[in-house]
Amino acid sequence: MPSNDFIPINTFIPRFEAAQAREAAARPNPLPEPPPQSGPTAPKAAPVEGVKGSDAGKDLLVMVLGAVTVLAVAAAIYWLVEFVGYPFHAQMMWLVFPIGAPICGLVAGAGFWLALRQFHRRPQTSTYVAAAVAGVLGYVLIYFLMWWFLESQGVRVRDEVGFVEFMQFVMENQRVRHSGSGGEGAELGQWGYAQFAINVAGFAAGILVMVQAGGNKTFCPRCKRYFRKVGKQSRSSTNPEATAAALHPVIHGFRVGRIQEAVQLHADFGTPGNREYWTTTITVEACTGCGLHLATLEAAIKDNQGSRPVPGFFFRGVTLQAVRFPA
Ligand SMILES: [Zn+2]
Question: Measured in angstroms, how far is the CA atom of residue 83 from the centroid of ligand 1?
Fold first, then answer.
């Protein structure tokens, strides 16, 4: 049967599973006996390079660098708003959904993200609190700078009105225009305070998302390090029987921790990439401290809604040996 036969969606999985069961019965040990000396060992826990110092000190450093970045981005936002003459940081949709503020927050949170990864720290409660406080201060800083530098007919506004008064004026006199209709639009009045609060929350939320994303990576609790990505490999096929036969030894390799052989066998299977109906992907990450390699094998199929994961097809394997991906 040619491998590019069209396989209807509802027959691939049953045929694959039947073929998988036949393979398991016919070849309980599909990998050759390992040679007595098997493969190079990953570099062992060399004294973990990188940042010295206590965890609390590093957490503090993350907070300081993250907060400084938030304030620097806020200053840049002020400058850009003046430059383009449009308050994009306060852009909203339907008067209540903040658009500009969360996007600006994502940018402003980049420092937290980078510092977490750089110093190999997971976000703590204190990190989130610092990010939220920096978010509120950062958003207010945009208006503080407006007040500080605003001049009206050669007179510095800050010589005439205080910052609080200025903020009251800004919030109560915001004008909203619906796209399409020109004109002066409506004044927000008291709603301006609510809008301002929504934007502050949106800006802070963007930063918090970046803090969360910074910690959203495999972490070695023993070495206190984020894993490094070693490689990724995708192969696809439209033939359920050939897929089952090729993946049987790969899955076995995952189960017994022979990841390098699994990667090699998987490389020779199907078509590189994800063009065909069924795609399997191997991802390998490693801890640079202890050399632990963590491999993941997942499958996805295509249907008219796009690509979706195959439920139940998820394998994890670990090894202390080095894993190389064929070029
Ligand atoms: Zn480790």
Answer: 48
User: Are residues 175 and 247 located together in one domain of the fold?
Assistant: no
For the chain, give me the number of helices (H) and strands (E)? Answer: 10, 13
| CA 227 / ligand 1 centre spacing (Å) | 8
Domain boundary among 218, 237, 254: 218
Backbone conformation region of residue 85, classed left if phi is above 0, alpha if psi is from -120 to 50, else beta: left
Nearest-angstrom CA–CA distance, 14 and 304? 19
- pLDDT tens for each residue of 127-183: 999 999 999 999 999 999 999 999 988 899 999 899 999 998 888 877 654 444 444
Residue numbers of the domain that contains 270: 9-27+39-47+223-319
Q: Residue 131 in contact with residue 211, Cβ under 8 Å?
A: yes
Shared-domain flag, residues 120 and 69: yes
Secondary structure letter of residue 52 according to DSSP? -
Looking at residue 180, its amino acid is G
